[in-house]
C-alpha cells in the first residue's frame, strides 16, 4: 500500500532499492560504506522473507530518499512493541515532512497489526531528532549504554 503527499510516495521496500538505501546509509554515517550495495540488497531480501520486520521507504521521482525499519518484538514485562532499527532521510531533504510521513506510516502499521507502541533509540547528540520525536508524542524514558559482541 502506498500513500502520496505531494511528490513523495511512502511504500514498502524492494530489493531494487539497494543502491539508494546504501547511499542513505553512507549519508547518515560514512563508516557504513563498508556494507556494500550487494549486502544491503541481500539484507532487504532476508528481512522480507525471514522476519516480521517492515521497512517503509519515501520515494520521490523514482529515487528512495528516506526509510524507516520497524521490528516487532515481544517482552515478558510489556505489551508487544515495534522497535525502530533504522530511520534516515536524505540530509538535504530533512525538515520537509518526509520523516513525519515515514514514522506516521510505521505508527499506523503498528496500530493496524495490534502492537501497543513504538520504541526507538537516539544518540544523545541528536537533539534535533529528539525534538522531532517529542513533537510526535514520544516520551524520553532513560539514558543507556549499548553493548555489542561480534563473532568472528
Give me the secondary-structure topology:
Blueprint: E1 3-5, E2 8-12, H1 18-28, H2 37-50, E3 54-60, E4 63-73, E5 81-89, H3 98-112, E6 118-120, H4 127-135
Parallel strand pairs: 5-6
Antiparallel strand pairs: 1-2, 2-3, 3-4, 4-5
Helix pairs in contact: 1-2
Organism: Paenibacillus albilobatus
InterPro entries: Acyl_CoA_acyltransferase, GNAT_dom
Pfam families: Acetyltransf_1 (PF00583)
Write structural notes for this entry.
The chain has 152 residues and is an alpha+beta fold. The chain has one domain (3-135): Aminopeptidase, CATH 3.40.630.30. It has 4 helices and 6 strands. A 6-stranded mixed beta sheet has the order 1-2-3-4-5-6. It starts with a strand and ends in a 17-residue tail after the last helix. The relative contact order is 0.14.
Order of helices and strands: EEHHEEEHEH
Which percent range fits the helix content?
Answer: 25-40%
- Which architecture would the CATH scheme give at its second level? 3-Layer(aba) Sandwich
Helix count from the secondary structure assignment? 4
End-to-end gap? 40 Å
As residue ranges, the low-confidence spans are: none
Largest sheet: 6 strands, mixed
Radius of gyration: 15 Å
Question: What CATH first level would be assigned?
Answer: Alpha Beta
Summed up, the domain count is 1
Strand content: 25-35%
Strand order of the largest sheet: 1-2-3-4-5-6
Shape: globular
Kindly report the average pLDDT value: 92
Structural class: alpha+beta
Q: The CATH topology is what?
A: Aminopeptidase
Write the CATH homologous superfamily.
Gcn5-related N-acetyltransferase (GNAT)
**Total beta-strand segments:** 6
Domain N-acetyltransferase: 8-152
Protein name: N-acetyltransferase
Organism: Paenibacillus albilobatus
GO molecular function, one term: acyltransferase activity, transferring groups other than amino-acyl groups
